[in-house]
Amino acid sequence: MLVGVLLVYLLAPFLWMALYSLFPASALQSLTPNLDPRLITLGSYRRLLGDSSFLVPMAHSAIVGISTTVVCMVLGSGCAYVLARYRFPGRHTLLVGMLTVQAVPVIVLAVPLFVLLRAFGMYDTLPGLVVTYTAFILPLVVWMLVGFFQEVPPSLERAAVIDACSRLQIVWRIAVPLAAPGMAATAVLAFITSWSDFFLAKVLTSGNAATLPVRTAAFQGLFAMDYTAAATAGVITAVPVLLLALVAQRWIIRGLVEGAVKG
Amino acid sequence: ATLSGCVSPGDPSAKGSAGASDGPLKPGGKPAGELTILDDNTNKVFQASAIAAFQSATGIKVKTYTMGNFNDLHDRFATLFAAKDSTVDVVMTWAGWTAEFGQAGWLQELDQTAVPKDLIKPALDAVSWRGKVYGLPKFSSVQTMFWNKTLAKQAGLDADKAPATWDEFVAAAKAMTRPGQYGYACDIGNPAGAYQNFLRVLLLNGGDMYDQDYKPIFNSEQGVEALTKFKELLTLHKVMDPASLQTTNASDLGDQFARGSTGIVFNWPFQYAVATGKASKLTAQTVGNGLIPGISVRSASIDGSEGFAINNYSKNKEAALAWLQFVTTGTVQQKIVDQEGWFPVTSTVLDDPKSAAALPVVTTYKETTKYATKRWGTPWSNELDQLLSVQLNNVMNGKTPPRDALNSAASQTEALVKRYLK
Amino acid sequence: MAGQDPAPVDGAATPARRRSRRRTRELRFAIGMAAPALVIIVLLLGYPMGYAVFMSGFDWSEKTATPPSFVGLGNYAAVMHDPQVLAALLRTLFFAAVTVGAGVTLAVLIAVLLNVEFRGRTLVRVLLLVPWAVPPVVNGIMWKLIFDGSTGVVNAIGLGLGIFHDRVQFLADPTWTMNVLVFAETWKLLPFLCLLMLAGLQGIPANIYKAARVDGAGAWQRFLRITLPNLRGPITFALVVQTMWSLKVFDTIYVLTGGSGGPAEGTTTINFLAYLVTFSNLDRGYGAAIAISATVLVLLFAVFWTVVLRDRKEVAR
Amino acid sequence: MAQIELKKVQKTYGRGRNAVPAVHELTYTIGDGDFVSLLGPSGCGKSTTLNMIAGLDEVSGGEILIDGARVDDLDPDKRDLAFVFQDYALYPHMDVAANIGFGLKMRKVAKPEIERRVRDAARRLDIEHVLGSRPRNLSGGQRQRVALARAIARRPKVFLFDEPLSNLDALLRDQTRSELKMLHAELGATSVYVTHDQEEAMTLSDKIAVMSRGNLEQYGTPYEIYHRPATRFVASFVGKPRMNLLPAVRSERGRYAVGGSSFFVDAGDAPDRAVVGLRPEECQLDKVSADQRHGVVKVVEPLGNVSDVIVDLGSALFTVRTPGFSSFSVGDDVRISVERASVHCFDEDSGLRV
Amino acid sequence: MAQIELKKVQKTYGRGRNAVPAVHELTYTIGDGDFVSLLGPSGCGKSTTLNMIAGLDEVSGGEILIDGARVDDLDPDKRDLAFVFQDYALYPHMDVAANIGFGLKMRKVAKPEIERRVRDAARRLDIEHVLGSRPRNLSGGQRQRVALARAIARRPKVFLFDEPLSNLDALLRDQTRSELKMLHAELGATSVYVTHDQEEAMTLSDKIAVMSRGNLEQYGTPYEIYHRPATRFVASFVGKPRMNLLPAVRSERGRYAVGGSSFFVDAGDAPDRAVVGLRPEECQLDKVSADQRHGVVKVVEPLGNVSDVIVDLGSALFTVRTPGFSSFSVGDDVRISVERASVHCFDEDSGLRV
Ligand SMILES: Nc1ncnc2c1ncn2[C@@H]1O[C@H](COP(=O)(O)OP(=O)(O)OP(=O)(O)O)[C@@H](O)[C@H]1O
Ligand SMILES: Nc1ncnc2c1ncn2[C@@H]1O[C@H](COP(=O)(O)OP(=O)(O)OP(=O)(O)O)[C@@H](O)[C@H]1O
Ligand SMILES: [Mg+2]
Ligand SMILES: [Mg+2]
């Protein structure tokens, strides 16, 4: 019973938006919604998925999301491993610093970031976005991974030393596979964050590298508000992440639940 | 050094004329080069045909033409300009931004010789600030009244006769108000909308925003009366759809009208296209169009013309000017009227009978030009919109009496004027 | 002197040198692994952050034709006395308190519910991820569709069930809109908090519940006296991190309110105000000062968190 | 004080096709004031039985009576018993005093009385100086005592222990074991004690219930268990070193050939094939010449005062405990003598004593 | 095969004020092919010593030589040794075969050779049938064997074991202990074995190094350790039941009054005050009348073939191991006789044998 209420609460809003995307504007955008299933049409999807001004940002988002995730995971694992395994002065400060970065508002950083990216010729480019997202997401990734790496029993690494593994091999062959569920959860988090970002993409891209959320928000034009399209775009923007979450759910839940999320 | 040099606060050249040439830009020579244009997403005609025509006519290449979401553009421009970015040559503008960015020294001033002689005054105003011209208009826009003839008929009104006075308007709106249906709706859900709706009633009651020295005078008796009458549409006559308070843009209002549940709206010319479009419940026969009825004057309206301006840091200013001028030419303007339902920026095209044939609203527009149509775009438009929206919301929700609200807004505005008008 | 007795000197130095070579290798490895991430973070966050602090020291309005002038802490002094800032701050605190408070409370309850074995539990846990996967922009659009004053489904349902007499203009009234925003945000942040709490629950040894039963504690008392105290770590963590995130919420507000933070500034949180000041008013110095003041506020939480964190690490050992 | 009766108690986890029977029809009575151990290997259902007595698990069949009254649907806290868990299950967020007093507080005992009883229990177990500490700051032994103190402070009719010593190191374990025995002598409450360590069970208990795979193998005093193991399983599980259990075949004159070797034992009138059990410490070894040997020494394990010698009989290994540091060395030819040993005989198939 | 020499080996964790000395100047030699146990209570520095030999920890002072060559600077994988960890440290993400072969793979041994050696090691330890399983699907005993197989497959000069049996249950522990001993006899590699279980050390080792608080207490054969403990610590730590160690004061005729009671022992020419040690299994008990008694029976712990009787001497407790199920019961007046016992004497302050 309680679970039922919970499910309705969790799913209903999203399902309603999905309905919005499936029904013609006239059916739902009226005082009393008309939920006649015969009205259902995939027209809106057909239109958006056939429109390059929508598909291109979608591809951009996918590229940026995946690249950011990969870069974050690669760089983050290295950094997190060191923070998890080595004791050195300032380690604690660094860890807390990683978390503190969460408090920094993106708003004020936008202009300097823009200048910085342009100086490197990366304004309005996908690499520019990737680098920026990486900077913002890395601290959280590092913070989470430190927790997961700490759970890897040190004796396994000692065994690997005896088995003639180099440091790098230990990370790659022992620590990473063992932290896999946690890493999967972290990767999904990184992907969701970079895939969903709106503000930075808005400021740091123009025509060449616009991403899906920017495009989705743009359905709210001054003279061109299209709710059906916006809902459709919303569903399309959310679905890859949902699919990812579903595919990776075993690891996400295990990673986040068992690895005791530290970030 | 290269990084901080871009926006160093100590750098005196960060302000004023920092472009390639000093002084206003004159047309001349045979410009060449490549252009990057950043436009809003109002017009499709440029991408569809005008750019190709421009390239073949001038030999200038348009490298990129990007349509951004209007809501995002301000932030993007502000970032670009603050960083002295030269990658974008031409930017879209309207009255507020012209004043704001022009005064900041981010837009290239144009010489009078670059301005076509037949430009309509309100359109030129949208690209000028304090006597300086910072761009050329791409289309004109003025609000007019649209009504739903079907609803009017159902309400027992003469569907073809536009209400000519405020009282007639209120009466008509009342007649068309019934359960699930409102006689009138507007868009005061966001700051810009709040400002526009207030400015409109202010002008309709013969008031004005500022005197010659930009002293705010909108809290005059006319202002208070106008706001009171506007408020009464919601609270006393109950003809205004309460959803107006959350409607954040003109397109929502347009859709709402097209849905057929609203009797009367005051909206931009695109409303005609929306109301006669495929998804609409209305047709060309059932859309009424006319002057907005005045309170103490016959009529008045607000201007919403848009244009193009040149980035002061652009390296292709001559070529950019060529684009600006090309947009004002007859062929392009005619297309804007025919295909998109906006008004032309030159009297030549406006007076061309073809225009009125393609867009019946043009007739009303011509009449409107006889009355006050203003916008008062200023560098402090954003701040003013914001503070006025707070006051207006308080008035509509009955939290503050109109007079107090306006006095408060006026004194805040005065501070803004003092800050920005040095 | 130096040449007199070289052997012992050598003998003493060699192992030390050898050992230090091993240590150098470790050091080089550690630096090589950690450096790229740290460089990116410092460069792309540190530089802009420093720049923002720098900006906040200037009267730096792009709209006036005067060049920026140094005002020291003037902007911060102005922030202290700005009624708009104060209003935004109160709004922000309300927003954060309710989202975080309701979020964490619900998360604990849901986590306790989902920690019980029942059929389909895994499915529910998976579906729990749905709100998490919805991007903020989409979240804004979604709730706008739902709470719209004329076509929103909440109104349709409310009228249909006879709960409302008339359409409620949720998005027209500042208070209502803030509540919708709180609702939307809570919905979105819940999954993460839930997982956090579930993680915490898994960490509580099952046997202490048995011990408590033998000791005579009822279900309610077990929740109060065993579950809650043992969730202190995750709860504190959730409180602080979520406060940080709540203070930063932007995308949802932007989309939900058409970029205005309205109606009547009703959803202009301190962060959104910093945005408006920076990007609408182009008052960069002041905008930076507002944002940095807000950050400092959040950092106070972080300091608090550091203390909690240290405590928690000790527990782990 | 209390008497606990188990009548055909059964427990099945899960349902339908996933059903896992954990305990089968247990029937025995734990006398008032007795100290009874449940002994068996891991997974045999000891904890399950204990949990059912405590009321933490429901019985699937049969009934449990405490002092003659059925308790099947009584909540654990109504059964007046205290539970000491293997991992102690101390409340990590309370200090030691609060841990000890929690059960009393939940039962609404008056503050001063709680105070008094906590002090008393702490004094008994010598943990008064750590009353203010959190469990995580205590050593394993101290935690163990806190867990005991928590049980004692309640003064219940019945104590239930689930392997309370298994997390302690050897020295501490021996020490606590003695203390536990003294404590039981003092308090006299009925105690049920789960362990997989036969030595613990032997030294502590009045009676032992040996379990295997959910079944009761034997219920009796330590003496009975040791000297007359009812089943082959009990024989192998109880006693250290492990009893030599070897298949034997009857040959001439009622003697059995053990493990197919030349080593014969007498075993009365048992069936033709049986499993013969001999305790290593009851046998003796003699060095002999190769032609007389029963087997060859394979391993010698000195234990200080005694040494275990493992003899390879060819087909099987046979352990003999010899006194002192053994004089045998690997490879010696030896003969086993069993004159002083009692010979246990078990049915090959059922494993029952014959 | 290899000889390991420790010369004044020291280890300090941390630096400056936080420095924790873990091991003090250890000096001894582990002979080629020997099986040496490091025995001591928890925290005495056994693992630290082993890790230094392995190269997993750096030495803070002194030096370690393997076959006469210094290895301070050699990485663990260059020292040609194999390590068996207490928690086995099996790679959970690899199957058993991969676990066993991992060290060879990392050393770039050819595939077929790896294959061969893995099979061979698995066969020896009887885990061929689980080569394809993941460690988590194995029982504790099987995991233990996999860890051993991993070490064996490498065929190193030296085996290092860090409490490899402590996670096994009693039966399995005894069994694996025997197997380990046979394995060592077969392979003959030098082995260093860390344990806190004196029985394990006694049964397995050629030599034992008893440690306490980072110091070497005694290094010798099990016989020496048991019969001539060099310090009071060794005496108390080795032997089960624990040796009775009681303060004694010399009185008339070279006899010592033990624990201030009426119980006297002879102890040659030792100082006036000393600690006297008597092994419980070397003493005897007699029931006597109250006026002749040394003490009163306090606890009787039957262990099957023997029983430990704890006698209250008034000021101290004294344990005597008696044969069979004891005929003593709590409260009996008893007399202790020590004719057959060797008396160990230790200095009161230094704890050294006198
Ligand atoms: N909650 C449960 N669900 C399903 N099976 C269970 C559950 N608890 C125990 N079992 C099964 O019941 C059997 C008996 O378990 P129990 O815990 O009583 O064993 P035990 O004798 O206490 O073992 P140990 O010495 O390892 O604690 C085991 O086979 C176990 O797998
Ligand atoms: N990494 C470390 N940092 C600081 N101190 C340590 C570290 N490792 C061990 N110690 C300390 O060194 C001492 C010896 O530890 P070691 O692990 O060698 O003991 P041990 O004899 O193996 O004990 P156990 O039987 O519990 O494994 C202990 O006091 C321990 O606290
Ligand atoms: Mg158990
Ligand atoms: Mg150790």
From TrEMBL, chain A:
The chain crosses the membrane at residues 54-83, 95-117, 129-149, 170-192, 227-248. It comes from the Bacteria. Gene3D superfamilies: MetI-like. It is found in: Cell membrane. The keyword Transmembrane helix applies. Residues 58-248 form the ABC transmembrane type-1 domain. This is Carbohydrate ABC transporter permease.
Automatic annotation (TrEMBL), chain C:
It is a multi-pass membrane protein. It comes from the Bacteria. It is found in: Cell membrane. The chain crosses the membrane at residues 27-47, 93-114, 126-146, 189-209, 230-247, 286-309. CDD domains: TM_PBP2. SUPFAM superfamilies: MetI-like. Residues 89-307 form the ABC transmembrane type-1 domain. Keywords: Cell membrane, Membrane, Transmembrane, Transmembrane helix, Transport. Residues 1-21 are annotated as: Disordered. InterPro entries: MetI-like, MetI-like_sf. Belongs to the binding-protein-dependent transport system permease family. This is Sugar ABC transporter permease.
From TrEMBL, chains D, E:
InterPro entries: AAA+_ATPase, ABC_transporter-like_ATP-bd, ABC_transporter-like_CS, ABC_transpr_MalK-like, ABC_transpr_MalK/UgpC-like, Mo/tungstate-bd_C_term_dom, NA-bd_OB-fold, P-loop_NTPase. One of its GO terms (molecular function) is ATP binding. SUPFAM superfamilies: MOP-like, P-loop containing nucleoside triphosphate hydrolases. Gene3D superfamilies: 2.40.50.100, Nucleic acid-binding proteins, P-loop containing nucleotide triphosphate hydrolases. Keywords: ATP-binding, Cell membrane, Membrane, Nucleotide-binding, Translocase, Transport. Pfam families: ABC_tran, TOBE_2. Coiled coil: none annotated. The keyword Lipid metabolism does not apply. Residues 4-238 form the ABC transporter domain. The keyword Transport applies. This is Sn-glycerol-3-phosphate ABC transporter ATP-binding protein UgpC. The gene is ugpC_3.
